[in-house]
Amino acid sequence: EAQVTQNPRYLITVTGKKLTVTCSQNMNHEYMSWYRQDPGLGLRQIYYSMNVEVTDKGDVPEGYKVSRKEKRNFPLILESPSPNQTSLYFCASSLSIMGYQETQYFGPGTRLLVL
Amino acid sequence: QKEVEQDPGPLSVPEGAIVSLNCTYSNSAFQYFMWYRQYSRKGPELLMYTYSSGNKEDGRFTAQVDKSSKYISLFIRDSQPSDSATYLCAMSAGTGNQFYFGTGTSLTVIP
């Protein structure tokens, strides 16, 4: 089954404790992306990656890091989480056709609470 | 000013009604326009995708793009209770670019 998986699905942590949210896709997609979703603000793009070893900042990259060492994986790293990073996080991937990313497939989401 | 503006609703309609959902945007470079549906506690799923201006129809769903007015719409005909969800518009300028999402409109279709 074609899918995007994220782990963990739920996470409670404390300020300053480094954490990683994993994202993996089995569709051989070039393009992967991380979003956060907050009430009243909608989905905002954090980072995206056009391919292996290529990453770019989205709308709200501060406080986050990503890496793309393999095509299928795109982990999101919070080096020193703060309460304002409490949010619902989605990973997404899409096939890149002539450089354009069409249908984005979203993961099930990771709900993060930073105390 | 936000890149994409979307009325959050909530919108409540009786079953069988025609629903109209809208977004406006400010960036004239946007060329690709998408509508996503998001059920509670799930990730968004793509409903419709349109390039540039014009209409696109898929079953009960019709997407319209008016680039001159920087305005996009999604129409749902014969709405069903299963259409109850949050609808998100999204836009992109194209190759390698970011995607920008509206805040979403919450729709409830009452049986």
Tell me the major beta sheet of chain A: 7 strands, mixed
Number of helices of chain A: 0
Distance between the termini of chain A: 36 Å
Order of helices and strands of chain A: EEEEEEEEEEEEE
User: Which two chains form the greatest contact, residue counts included?
Assistant: A-B, 28 and 24 residues
Question: Segments of chain A where pLDDT lies below 50 for 5+ residues?
Answer: none
Notable characteristics:
heterodimer; A: about 120 residues; mainly beta; 4-stranded antiparallel beta sheet; B: about 110 residues; 5-stranded antiparallel beta sheet; 11 strands; about 0% helix
Detailed description of the structure:
The complex is a heterodimer of chains A (115) and B (111). Chain A is an all-beta fold. Chain A contains no helices and 13 strands. Helix content of chain A is 0%, strand content 53%. In chain A, strands 2, 4, 5, 6, 9, 12 and 13 form a 7-stranded mixed β-sheet that branches. Chain A has a 4-stranded antiparallel β-sheet with strand order 1-3-8-7, with no helix packed on it. In chain A, strands 10-11 form a two-stranded antiparallel ribbon. In chain A, a hairpin with a 2-residue loop joins strand 5 (42-51) and strand 6. Chain B starts with a strand and ends with a strand. Chains A and B meet through strand 5, strand 11 and strand 12 of A and strand 5, strand 9 and strand 10 of B.
